[in-house]
Amino acid sequence: MPTPTPADQLREAASLLRDKATAAIHEGRTTWSTGNTLASRSPVVLDDPEQPSVLIETYAARLERVNSYLALLGPATGIAVADWLDREAALWNAVETTAAEHGPKGLKVTVGLSTHTEALAVARQILGTTTDTTVAAPVTEAAPVAVIHACPGPDDNGTSPCCHRPPFEVRSERITRDPALVTCPGAPATEEPTR
How many CB atoms lie within 10 A of CB 110? Predict the structure, then answer.
């Protein structure tokens, strides 16, 4: 059997986690919390504080921290993590496809805020293959990062507010309306006339 690609590992972990999280849902309750039993007051993990079903009961006070942690990782969290792993698998495939079709120059637009490495680490923990570190993330620090310009607004006279260039001059780069995503360093330096 061939070695699974990182995208395959991400999808496999997402599927396993989603199956386990879905199986842990009781009566449609996806969010867990901590509490105590009525009789013995032992710490427990509950699936509903109003009409609880005890999911985990511990008899040692020191395990209350474990219960708090497990309550955080209820089915709702598991399904959300599985969705994230699926999304990272799709991004991983897109980047690898672009690199294969266009070479390094095809990676002009990269996912700078990607969590490929973290997602793969989570997937490998879920699959029990934590020692497999042979494959690096498809987007490396050496990959070129796209310049993202601010989209001209109604008061910007048709030029980008970050570098004062019109959109047709930055066609090979990206433009956004979200100021948090702008990576343009600003106005290009102008040469001083020589005397």
Answer: 17
Q: How far is CA 39 from CA 43, 48, 56, in A?
A: 11, 18, 15
Contact 21, 78 (CB under 8 A): yes
Neighbours of 67 (CB within 10 A): 23
d(Cα 93, Cα 174) in Å, to the nearest integer? 21
Contacting residues for 116 by C-beta, under 8 A, at least 6 apart: 6, 88, 91, 92, 137, 138, 139
Amino acid at 107: L
Residue 129 has a CB neighbour count (10 Å cut-off) of 14
Which residue shows structure tokens 């601010």?
Answer: 150
Instruction: For 29-86, write each residue's pLDDT tens digit.
Output: 888 888 776 766 677 787 777 777 777 776 666 677 777 777 778 888 889 999 999 9
Question: Residue 46, exposed/middle/buried by CB under 10 A (0-12, 13-18, 19+)?
Answer: buried
pTM (2 decimals)?
A: 0.56
Alpha carbon separation from 30 to 41, 66, 125 (Å, rounded): 24, 18, 22
One-letter amino acid identity for 65?
A: R
